Amino acid sequence: MSLGQLTLNLIEGSVTFSFTPQSARELQNAIAQLMESLKASAAAKPTGSGKKAAPQKAMEYRYAGDIFLEIFCNPNIWPSPFAAKVLITLRDDRIRITTEAELTRIVEDVNQYLEQVS
């Protein structure tokens, strides 16, 4: 399986690491499901009956290769997909980085990576 270099642009700075195209497609699918959850959360408005909108399941994507990557997002706390941020943890045996990134920017980064390795 070939590895390419995925660059994730963070709120401040960026991080680049080896990543497989198959894993990028899995991440792309997980993000697509998250976007649907975010849209459902945004569309669900409380009715006069006093019922709350059904909570959406959080996205927890994990990749373990040369590095460990975890991307987490709770769709219930963001008003729209465009406002959403994800928590990113990237680590190996020598370093660990935990930070936030804008969801829309991560979508662009993964799409760009897949275009480059195709």
Q: Would you give an account of this structure?
A:
The chain is of the alpha+beta class and 118 residues long. The chain is 32% helix and 32% strand. The chain has two helices and six strands; from the N terminus they run E-E-H-E-E-E-E-H. The chain has helices spanning 21-43, 103-117; strands at 4-9, 14-19, 59-64, 68-73, 85-91, 96-102. The strands form two sheets. It has a four-stranded antiparallel sheet. The protein has a two-stranded antiparallel sheet with strand order 1-2. A hairpin with a 4-residue loop joins strand 1 and strand 2 (14-19). Helix 1 (21-43) packs antiparallel against helix 2 (103-117). The protein is globular and about 50 Å long. The mean pLDDT is 90.
As a percent range, the share of helical residues equals 25-40%
Gross morphology is globular
Task: Please state the structural category.
Answer: alpha+beta
Low-confidence region ranges: none
How many beta-strand segments? 6
Q: How many DSSP H or I helices?
A: 2
Q: Give the end-to-end Cα distance, rounded to a whole number of Å.
A: 13 Å
- β-strand amount: 25-35%
Biggest sheet: strand arrangement: 3-4-5-6
Mean pLDDT: 90
Radius of gyration: 16 Å
- Helix/strand order: EEHEEEEH
Largest sheet: 4 strands, antiparallel
